[in-house]
Design a protein that fits this description.
This protein is an alpha/beta fold and 312 residues long. It has eleven helices and twelve strands. It has helices at residues 21-33, 49-58, 106-120, 133-136, 138-154, 168-177, 200-207, 239-254, 259-265, 283-294, 299-307; strands spanning 5-8, 38-40, 67-72, 74-78, 86-87, 92-95, 98-102, 127-131, 160-165, 182-186, 210-214, 273-278.
């Protein structure tokens, strides 16, 4: 099932911790050896470091053997203001010699793509996402960004366009207001919670829009052995969700299935969801994710989760 598993490259952009070039290359090589052929990155990830590292690896592979996506909306420009040493305030342990500037205009999106291709060292990406318009300004992002992306697709610069968001409402608006091919939705269709199931997924299915489910472990909660000590949406775990996670784990254990196995495979049961995308800079975690994807999950497990009202 690795054709339905994508590699998210935020971690190799030094998300939360420093990662060496050798370790970044090693985890990408492990992903490739495990059959992963879909890779996603963004200028935001490490102020371009993720794109540079991913590009260095992918340039070693035949271009027609993999799919690559990156994102636009945030331009990476020199930092002419106050310096603090690193970009850790935004989650990345890299020098803060550059900053992000929101620009979803046609010119901004074109410049972002050109800069991404330069960092990647490649001549094209397959998919370009508008990145986090729900964070910077949804109305402006959709009004300017969606037509800009459509123009780049029309000009043959990318094959597919889409949005990458955390908000179901933002994704629904993008699908209804634009002409997009794919939605990347983070944390909103997981084994733990399914707000995307009510409107977004049926809408995407009706319109032929592919869905990529990301953050399917809910910030690591569904992959942690100790939920109370884990994170949820990058913060503390609410007690009710820690309890729900333990109930999910207990049902999975009855069928001899690890909770992360069920968490990775659950979103793919919906016909609108094309892939799950997960990221790590650790080869051991990458191997575990590939093993989880290859594990057979009995139908009885899903039926029991429904009976116990843990999934719809």
């Amino acid at each position: 099932m690795t054709e339905r598993l994508g590699f998210g490259a935020a971690s190799i952009g030094n998300l939360y911790r420093e990662v060496s070039d050798d370790d970044a290359h090693a985890v990408l090589a492990e992903a490739w050896a495990g059959g992963i052929r879909s890779f996603d990155t963004a200028p935001h990830y490490g102020l371009g470091l993720s794109e540079r590292r991913l590009g260095a690896f992918l340039r070693e592979q035949p271009r027609d053997t993999y799919r690559l996506s990156t994102k636009a909306g945030r331009l990476i420009v020199p930092n002419t203001g106050r310096r603090y040493g690193t970009d850790e305030a935004n989650g990345f342990v890299v020098p803060d010699d550059h900053v992000r500037r929101w620009d979803p205009s046609l010119d901004g999106v074109r410049r972002s793509l050109d800069a991404s291709l330069e960092r990647l060292g490649l001549d094209h990406v397959d998919t370009l996402f508008l990145h986090d318009p729900d964070v910077y300004g949804l109305d402006e992002g959709l009004r300017l960004g969606l037509p800009a992306l459509a123009r780049l697709r029309e000009d043959g610069l990318v094959d597919e366009i889409g949005v990458g968001v955390n908000s179901v409402e933002a994704a629904v608006r993008a699908v209804t207001e634009g002409d997009i091919d794919v939605v990347m939705i983070a944390g909103r269709y997981t084994l733990l919670e399914q707000p995307a199931a009510e409107e977004l997924l049926p809408l995407c299915q009706e319109r032929g829009v592919r869905v990529l489910a990301v953050a399917v472990f809910n910030s690591g909660l569904l992959a942690s052995a100790t939920p109370a000590a884990a994170h949820y949406n990058y913060g503390a775990v609410p007690p009710e969700l820690a309890e729900r996670t333990e109930r999910l784990r207990e049902v999975c254990a009855r069928f001899g299935v690890a909770l992360p196995t069920a968490a990775l495979q659950y979103p793919l049961r919906h016909p609108a969801v094309d892939q799950v995308v997960v990221g790590t800079a650790r080869t051991s975690s990458l191997r575990a994710n590939i093993a989880h994807m290859g594990t057979v999950v009995p139908d009885e497990l899903w039926e029991t989760l429904r009976e116990e009202r843990l999934i719809p």
